[in-house]
Amino acid sequence: MNMHPVMLLMLADQRQRELAEETERHRVLAGAREARRGRKGRAARGQPTGNLASCDPSAAVPAR
After folding, report:
1. Cα 28 vs. chain centroid, distance in angstroms?
2. pTM of the model
């Protein structure tokens, strides 16, 4: 089936717009995920992050 060149151009333009919208949605969602991850990271600020045991008692450590 042969298509009219203007119709092919319209379909190509429509597909380009769809791809651009999909890319923009992906960027917005990735930014939202990054923002959420950043908020969670701030909540843990002040907590030791190393692998050495702390001298302070912790609620996560069972009583001895």
Report:
1. 8
2. 0.51
pLDDT one-digit tens code per residue, 7-55: 999 999 999 999 999 999 999 999 999 998 887 655 555 565 666 665 6
Contact indicator for 34, 40 with CB cutoff of 8 Å = no
Torsion over CA of 51, 55, 59 and 62, rounded to 10 degrees? 90
If residue 31 lies in a helix (H) or strand (E), which one and from where to where?
helix 5-43
Residue 34 tokens read as 């990054």
Give the separation between CA 16 and CA 21, rounded to whole angstroms.
9
Task: Give residue for tokens 């969670």.
Answer: 40
